Amino acid sequence: MKRKIAMLLTTMLTVTAVTTACSSAPSSGSGSETETESGSVSSDEGDARVIKVITIWNEDEEGTLFMKNLSDEYHEEHPNVSVEFEVVSQDGLNEKLSVLAASNDLPDVFLQSQSATIRSFAEQGLTVNVGEKLEELDMKDVMSQETIDSIVTRQGTDGLYIMPTQNNIEGFFYNKAVFEENKLEEPDNMDEFMDICKKLSDNGVQPLVSAGAEKWPLTRLMGAYTTQVGGVDALVKASHGEISWSEDEFLQGYQWLKDIGEAGYLGLGATTLDTDTANSMFLSGQAAMLYNGSWFTSNLNSDANTLGHL
Question: pTM here?
Protein backbone atom coordinates (compact mmCIF):
# COMPACT_ATOMS: atom_id res chain seq x y z
CA MET A 1 0.00 0.00 0.00
CA LYS A 2 2.91 2.37 0.67
CA ARG A 3 3.93 2.03 -2.96
CA LYS A 4 0.38 2.71 -4.14
CA ILE A 5 -0.04 5.93 -2.18
CA ALA A 6 3.41 7.05 -3.27
CA MET A 7 2.32 6.53 -6.84
CA LEU A 8 -0.88 8.40 -6.12
CA LEU A 9 1.06 11.44 -5.00
CA THR A 10 3.94 11.36 -7.45
CA THR A 11 3.18 9.25 -10.49
CA MET A 12 2.02 11.21 -13.49
CA LEU A 13 1.67 14.45 -11.55
CA THR A 14 3.60 17.42 -10.20
CA VAL A 15 4.11 17.40 -6.44
CA THR A 16 4.63 20.60 -4.46
CA ALA A 17 7.62 20.89 -2.17
CA VAL A 18 5.83 22.93 0.48
CA THR A 19 3.58 20.08 1.62
CA THR A 20 3.50 16.29 1.79
CA ALA A 21 5.29 14.71 -1.12
CA CYS A 22 4.75 11.02 -0.52
CA SER A 23 4.11 8.36 2.03
CA SER A 24 7.04 6.86 3.89
CA ALA A 25 7.43 3.19 4.65
CA PRO A 26 5.15 1.79 7.33
CA SER A 27 6.68 1.84 10.80
CA SER A 28 7.00 -1.26 12.93
CA GLY A 29 4.73 0.31 15.54
CA SER A 30 1.11 1.37 15.38
CA GLY A 31 1.02 2.19 11.68
CA SER A 32 2.58 4.06 8.79
CA GLU A 33 3.85 7.61 8.88
CA THR A 34 3.55 10.57 6.52
CA GLU A 35 6.78 12.35 5.74
CA THR A 36 6.72 16.07 4.93
CA GLU A 37 9.33 18.17 3.18
CA SER A 38 10.20 19.84 6.46
CA GLY A 39 11.01 16.45 7.90
CA SER A 40 8.14 16.39 10.38
CA VAL A 41 6.07 13.23 10.71
CA SER A 42 2.47 12.59 11.67
CA SER A 43 1.36 9.09 12.62
CA ASP A 44 -1.84 7.37 11.64
CA GLU A 45 -3.18 8.04 15.13
CA GLY A 46 -2.21 11.72 15.02
CA ASP A 47 -3.86 14.83 13.59
CA ALA A 48 -5.97 14.66 10.47
CA ARG A 49 -4.03 15.17 7.25
CA VAL A 50 -5.74 16.46 4.09
CA ILE A 51 -3.95 16.11 0.76
CA LYS A 52 -5.22 18.64 -1.76
CA VAL A 53 -5.28 17.88 -5.47
CA ILE A 54 -6.09 20.21 -8.38
CA THR A 55 -7.12 18.49 -11.59
CA ILE A 56 -8.81 19.33 -14.88
CA TRP A 57 -10.59 15.97 -14.94
CA ASN A 58 -14.09 15.60 -13.55
CA GLU A 59 -14.69 12.96 -10.92
CA ASP A 60 -16.17 10.55 -13.45
CA GLU A 61 -13.12 10.72 -15.74
CA GLU A 62 -10.41 8.08 -15.77
CA GLY A 63 -7.55 10.13 -14.31
CA THR A 64 -9.50 11.35 -11.30
CA LEU A 65 -11.22 8.01 -10.78
CA PHE A 66 -7.85 6.27 -10.63
CA MET A 67 -6.54 8.68 -8.00
CA LYS A 68 -9.78 8.69 -6.03
CA ASN A 69 -9.96 4.91 -5.85
CA LEU A 70 -6.40 4.75 -4.50
CA SER A 71 -7.00 7.55 -2.01
CA ASP A 72 -10.20 5.87 -0.74
CA GLU A 73 -8.32 2.59 -0.33
CA TYR A 74 -5.54 4.34 1.57
CA HIS A 75 -8.04 6.22 3.74
CA GLU A 76 -9.60 2.95 4.87
CA GLU A 77 -6.29 1.87 6.35
CA HIS A 78 -5.26 5.37 7.50
CA PRO A 79 -8.43 7.23 8.56
CA ASN A 80 -6.56 10.40 9.50
CA VAL A 81 -5.39 10.91 5.89
CA SER A 82 -7.86 12.02 3.22
CA VAL A 83 -7.60 13.48 -0.27
CA GLU A 84 -9.64 16.43 -1.54
CA PHE A 85 -10.04 17.03 -5.28
CA GLU A 86 -10.68 20.42 -6.86
CA VAL A 87 -11.63 20.46 -10.54
CA VAL A 88 -10.80 23.57 -12.55
CA SER A 89 -11.19 24.26 -16.25
CA GLN A 90 -8.18 23.66 -18.46
CA ASP A 91 -8.29 27.30 -19.57
CA GLY A 92 -8.25 28.50 -15.98
CA LEU A 93 -5.58 26.13 -14.66
CA ASN A 94 -2.50 28.28 -15.26
CA GLU A 95 -4.05 31.39 -13.73
CA LYS A 96 -5.22 29.40 -10.70
CA LEU A 97 -1.79 27.89 -10.08
CA SER A 98 0.00 31.22 -10.62
CA VAL A 99 -2.15 32.90 -7.98
CA LEU A 100 -1.58 30.05 -5.52
CA ALA A 101 2.17 30.01 -6.23
CA ALA A 102 2.42 33.75 -5.58
CA SER A 103 0.97 33.22 -2.09
CA ASN A 104 3.04 30.06 -1.53
CA ASP A 105 -0.19 28.10 -1.29
CA LEU A 106 0.09 25.52 -4.07
CA PRO A 107 -1.81 22.26 -3.49
CA ASP A 108 -0.02 19.04 -2.70
CA VAL A 109 -0.62 17.63 -6.16
CA PHE A 110 -1.61 19.31 -9.40
CA LEU A 111 -1.73 18.82 -13.13
CA GLN A 112 0.40 21.00 -15.37
CA SER A 113 1.64 20.72 -18.95
CA GLN A 114 3.14 24.14 -19.70
CA SER A 115 6.94 23.87 -19.89
CA ALA A 116 7.50 27.50 -18.87
CA THR A 117 5.37 27.11 -15.74
CA ILE A 118 7.02 23.83 -14.82
CA ARG A 119 10.50 25.37 -15.15
CA SER A 120 9.48 28.46 -13.18
CA PHE A 121 8.06 26.46 -10.28
CA ALA A 122 11.12 24.21 -10.22
CA GLU A 123 13.52 27.17 -10.24
CA GLN A 124 11.61 28.79 -7.39
CA GLY A 125 11.86 25.60 -5.36
CA LEU A 126 8.09 25.17 -5.31
CA THR A 127 8.04 21.62 -6.64
CA VAL A 128 9.68 18.39 -5.60
CA ASN A 129 12.35 16.77 -7.73
CA VAL A 130 10.23 13.71 -8.45
CA GLY A 131 13.17 11.83 -9.91
CA GLU A 132 15.03 12.04 -6.61
CA LYS A 133 11.88 11.11 -4.70
CA LEU A 134 11.31 8.02 -6.83
CA GLU A 135 14.91 6.99 -6.24
CA GLU A 136 14.42 7.36 -2.48
CA LEU A 137 11.34 5.13 -2.72
CA ASP A 138 13.21 2.59 -4.88
CA MET A 139 10.64 3.21 -7.61
CA LYS A 140 12.84 4.62 -10.35
CA ASP A 141 11.91 1.73 -12.63
CA VAL A 142 8.33 3.00 -13.08
CA MET A 143 9.61 4.71 -16.25
CA SER A 144 12.35 3.93 -18.70
CA GLN A 145 15.42 6.17 -18.72
CA GLU A 146 14.54 7.14 -22.29
CA THR A 147 11.16 8.46 -21.11
CA ILE A 148 12.76 10.38 -18.24
CA ASP A 149 15.37 11.92 -20.55
CA SER A 150 12.67 12.92 -23.03
CA ILE A 151 10.57 14.66 -20.37
CA VAL A 152 13.54 16.50 -18.86
CA THR A 153 14.65 17.64 -22.31
CA ARG A 154 11.20 18.90 -23.24
CA GLN A 155 10.72 20.76 -19.97
CA GLY A 156 14.24 22.20 -19.88
CA THR A 157 14.71 21.47 -16.17
CA ASP A 158 17.70 20.12 -14.26
CA GLY A 159 15.80 17.03 -13.17
CA LEU A 160 12.45 15.25 -13.31
CA TYR A 161 9.87 17.55 -11.73
CA ILE A 162 6.79 16.06 -13.38
CA MET A 163 5.59 12.69 -14.52
CA PRO A 164 3.26 11.98 -17.45
CA THR A 165 -0.36 11.21 -16.73
CA GLN A 166 -0.36 8.76 -19.63
CA ASN A 167 1.80 7.54 -22.48
CA ASN A 168 -0.04 8.34 -25.68
CA ILE A 169 0.53 8.79 -29.35
CA GLU A 170 -1.26 11.35 -31.50
CA GLY A 171 -2.26 11.36 -35.11
CA PHE A 172 -5.12 11.35 -37.59
CA PHE A 173 -8.02 8.96 -37.22
CA TYR A 174 -9.83 8.42 -40.51
CA ASN A 175 -13.05 6.83 -41.67
CA LYS A 176 -12.08 3.86 -43.83
CA ALA A 177 -15.49 3.69 -45.47
CA VAL A 178 -15.31 7.32 -46.58
CA PHE A 179 -11.80 6.79 -47.95
CA GLU A 180 -12.93 3.72 -49.87
CA GLU A 181 -16.01 5.47 -51.26
CA ASN A 182 -13.80 8.31 -52.51
CA LYS A 183 -11.05 5.96 -53.75
CA LEU A 184 -8.46 7.39 -51.37
CA GLU A 185 -5.43 5.80 -49.75
CA GLU A 186 -3.44 6.77 -46.68
CA PRO A 187 -1.10 9.67 -47.49
CA ASP A 188 2.67 9.33 -47.16
CA ASN A 189 3.43 13.04 -46.93
CA MET A 190 1.81 16.41 -46.42
CA ASP A 191 1.29 17.06 -50.13
CA GLU A 192 -0.70 13.84 -50.45
CA PHE A 193 -2.62 14.74 -47.29
CA MET A 194 -3.63 18.08 -48.82
CA ASP A 195 -4.67 16.35 -52.04
CA ILE A 196 -6.96 14.09 -49.99
CA CYS A 197 -8.50 17.09 -48.23
CA LYS A 198 -9.21 18.77 -51.57
CA LYS A 199 -10.75 15.66 -53.12
CA LEU A 200 -13.00 15.11 -50.10
CA SER A 201 -14.07 18.73 -50.09
CA ASP A 202 -14.76 18.69 -53.84
CA ASN A 203 -16.93 15.60 -53.26
CA GLY A 204 -18.97 17.36 -50.57
CA VAL A 205 -17.29 15.64 -47.61
CA GLN A 206 -15.85 17.64 -44.71
CA PRO A 207 -12.21 16.48 -44.59
CA LEU A 208 -11.33 17.35 -40.99
CA VAL A 209 -12.91 18.18 -37.69
CA SER A 210 -11.09 19.63 -34.70
CA ALA A 211 -12.06 20.87 -31.23
CA GLY A 212 -10.94 24.40 -31.99
CA ALA A 213 -12.55 25.88 -28.90
CA GLU A 214 -10.13 23.84 -26.80
CA LYS A 215 -7.21 25.53 -28.62
CA TRP A 216 -4.70 22.68 -28.20
CA PRO A 217 -6.01 20.57 -31.11
CA LEU A 218 -5.38 23.44 -33.54
CA THR A 219 -1.90 24.05 -32.15
CA ARG A 220 -1.21 20.32 -32.51
CA LEU A 221 -2.23 20.52 -36.17
CA MET A 222 0.14 23.45 -36.66
CA GLY A 223 2.85 21.55 -34.78
CA ALA A 224 2.36 18.48 -36.95
CA TYR A 225 3.02 20.56 -40.05
CA THR A 226 5.94 22.43 -38.47
CA THR A 227 7.75 19.22 -37.53
CA GLN A 228 7.44 18.06 -41.13
CA VAL A 229 9.26 21.22 -42.21
CA GLY A 230 11.65 21.95 -39.34
CA GLY A 231 12.24 18.54 -37.77
CA VAL A 232 10.93 16.83 -34.65
CA ASP A 233 12.96 19.02 -32.27
CA ALA A 234 11.72 22.36 -33.62
CA LEU A 235 8.99 22.73 -31.00
CA VAL A 236 11.34 21.79 -28.17
CA LYS A 237 13.93 24.32 -29.29
CA ALA A 238 11.33 27.07 -29.54
CA SER A 239 9.86 26.31 -26.11
CA HIS A 240 13.37 26.55 -24.62
CA GLY A 241 14.04 29.86 -26.35
CA GLU A 242 16.76 28.42 -28.57
CA ILE A 243 14.96 29.50 -31.72
CA SER A 244 12.19 32.02 -32.36
CA TRP A 245 8.54 31.16 -32.86
CA SER A 246 8.80 33.41 -35.92
CA GLU A 247 11.29 31.12 -37.67
CA ASP A 248 10.30 30.09 -41.18
CA GLU A 249 9.12 26.60 -40.20
CA PHE A 250 6.63 28.09 -37.74
CA LEU A 251 5.45 30.76 -40.17
CA GLN A 252 4.76 27.97 -42.64
CA GLY A 253 2.80 26.09 -39.98
CA TYR A 254 0.72 29.15 -39.10
CA GLN A 255 0.01 29.80 -42.78
CA TRP A 256 -0.91 26.15 -43.40
CA LEU A 257 -3.44 26.18 -40.54
CA LYS A 258 -4.90 29.41 -41.89
CA ASP A 259 -5.08 27.95 -45.39
CA ILE A 260 -6.96 24.77 -44.42
CA GLY A 261 -9.38 26.87 -42.39
CA GLU A 262 -10.07 29.25 -45.24
CA ALA A 263 -10.42 26.34 -47.66
CA GLY A 264 -13.23 24.98 -45.47
CA TYR A 265 -11.41 21.76 -44.70
CA LEU A 266 -12.21 22.17 -40.98
CA GLY A 267 -15.87 22.96 -41.61
CA LEU A 268 -17.89 25.88 -40.33
CA GLY A 269 -17.25 27.34 -36.87
CA ALA A 270 -14.06 25.33 -36.37
CA THR A 271 -12.91 27.55 -33.50
CA THR A 272 -16.18 27.09 -31.60
CA LEU A 273 -16.29 23.29 -31.43
CA ASP A 274 -15.56 21.59 -28.12
CA THR A 275 -14.10 18.11 -27.76
CA ASP A 276 -17.40 16.28 -27.34
CA THR A 277 -18.91 17.94 -30.43
CA ALA A 278 -15.84 17.29 -32.60
CA ASN A 279 -15.65 13.66 -31.50
CA SER A 280 -19.36 13.19 -32.10
CA MET A 281 -19.12 14.67 -35.61
CA PHE A 282 -16.38 12.24 -36.51
CA LEU A 283 -18.03 9.21 -34.94
CA SER A 284 -21.32 9.96 -36.68
CA GLY A 285 -19.64 10.24 -40.08
CA GLN A 286 -19.94 14.01 -40.51
CA ALA A 287 -16.18 14.40 -41.06
CA ALA A 288 -13.66 12.05 -42.66
CA MET A 289 -10.70 12.69 -40.34
CA LEU A 290 -10.02 13.72 -36.77
CA TYR A 291 -6.70 14.65 -35.16
CA ASN A 292 -6.60 13.13 -31.69
CA GLY A 293 -4.63 10.90 -29.34
CA SER A 294 -4.68 7.25 -28.39
CA TRP A 295 -6.95 8.13 -25.45
CA PHE A 296 -9.68 8.65 -28.05
CA THR A 297 -9.88 4.91 -28.75
CA SER A 298 -12.17 4.44 -25.74
CA ASN A 299 -14.79 6.45 -27.65
CA LEU A 300 -14.84 3.85 -30.40
CA ASN A 301 -16.70 1.51 -28.07
CA SER A 302 -19.36 4.10 -27.24
CA ASP A 303 -22.92 4.18 -28.59
CA ALA A 304 -22.01 7.39 -30.45
CA ASN A 305 -19.78 5.42 -32.81
CA THR A 306 -21.88 4.54 -35.82
CA LEU A 307 -18.86 3.81 -38.00
CA GLY A 308 -17.71 0.47 -36.67
CA HIS A 309 -13.98 -0.20 -37.03
CA LEU A 310 -11.90 2.68 -38.32
Answer: 0.65
